[in-house]
Amino acid sequence: MNKFKADIEIIGINPFVFVPDKVLKNIFKQAGKDKGPIPIRGTINNKPYRQTLVKYRDAWRLYINNSMVKNSPKRVGETVVIAVEFDPLSRNIKPHPKLVKAFKENKQAKKIFDSLSRSRQHEIVRYISFLKTEESVTRNITKAINHLIGKDTFVGRDKP
User: Fold this and answer.
1) I want to staple 15 with a disulfide (CB 3.0 to 4.6 A). Which of 54, 64, 65, 78 is the partner?
2) Mean pLDDT in the chain?
3) pTM of this prediction?
């Protein structure tokens, strides 16, 4: 596990820390690649997290969300202790059974979904999978299907 201290910074509305070059080299070696995104795990102030390292504006950043550090946007400038390593565990999420059924019933939406980038597909599947009530799942699957066939926006996205 690679450890370092860093000050929380912010870009737009996103708190993050820069990852030191020495740590990056170790993670790249563990991951077997130096192009992102790279799944990682570790601790921040001794609290476990799973996250993804991404390169933005020629710099690798570890974005700090509220599940990692409470009220993270308000903690810009705070120094945190981070442990990090490559996370080889799969991040795949199975689609909700109701979404699978909706795709069987709407071939056009399924075809458009299949043409989306893998990250966009994952975004839709993840959003629906993390909803808490069956009512929310049903309502958002309808929105997703309508979005895919060009009738509506979904999760802040324009029609495909």
Assistant:
1) 64
2) 90
3) 0.63
